[in-house]
Amino acid sequence: LDGNDGATRQIIASATTVAGSTLRTRARFLLTSNLFTISGFNAASSEILTIPSASAYTAGATWYHFLSSWNLATASGTLYVNDVSDIGSPTLTDDTIDYTMADWGIAASPAAGNPFSGCLAELYFAPGQYLDFSLVSNRRKFISANGKPVHLGATGSLPTGTAPIVYQHLDDAEAVANFATNRGTGGDFSIAGTLATCSTSPRD
After folding, report:
1. Rounded to whole angstroms, how far apart are CA atoms 28 and 107?
2. Closest of 163, 173, 181 to residue 197, by C-alpha
3. CB neighbourhood size of 65 (10 A)
4. What's the rounded mean pLDDT across residues 64-88?
5. What digits encode the pLDDT tens for the residues 11-47?
6. Residue 3: C-alpha distances to residues 55, 57, 127, 170 (Å)
7. Cys-Cys with 169: which of 49, 76, 122, 161 at CB 3.0–4.6 Å?
8. How many C-beta atoms lie closer than 10 Å to residue 72's C-beta?
9. How far apart are CA 120 and CA 64, in angstroms?
10. Is 140 helix (H, G, I), strand (E, B) or coil?
11. Has this prediction a pTM greater than 0.85?
């Protein structure tokens, strides 16, 4: 996290219209609380999922590994940061999240608002592929016992056997603009602005 503490910073966000400002499902660092928060909405625009972190996260040199999953039918939700549970008080309403939005953005809203200031090594988003991350064996599909990221496969299919709808990453020495290429099944993204290579790696 490089900056913008106290401001909303989107990791992934959906909008009801292309480049629209009415946001729905999203993961972000939230305003002055600096909490990592996941929100999900049903087709009637009611927020039925909220998973906040218990801890605040602000700018610094530390790499963080965020891992979250939810199953609203069983009121189950998890949030692990660097392999340690860090979930606050969640809302887990038994209803259906509407993921069929018109537009999605990574590291900003689809309208290029709420920009994320920092480095993203990977983004994996797989609605409908629930894994209970309270089980160590499921977390090890994403993070090793020594806290390093795990290889998820060329399309991100290794954790569940099915490629996620969104999987963004770069191979070693790959052009930074290729981060917009979705290795998952949901289609590529276009770049607004300029991407830069991070000066460090989460594997170091």
Report:
1. 9
2. 173
3. 20
4. 98
5. 999 999 999 999 999 999 999 999 999 999 999 999 9
6. 17, 11, 29, 23
7. 122
8. 19
9. 10
10. coil
11. yes
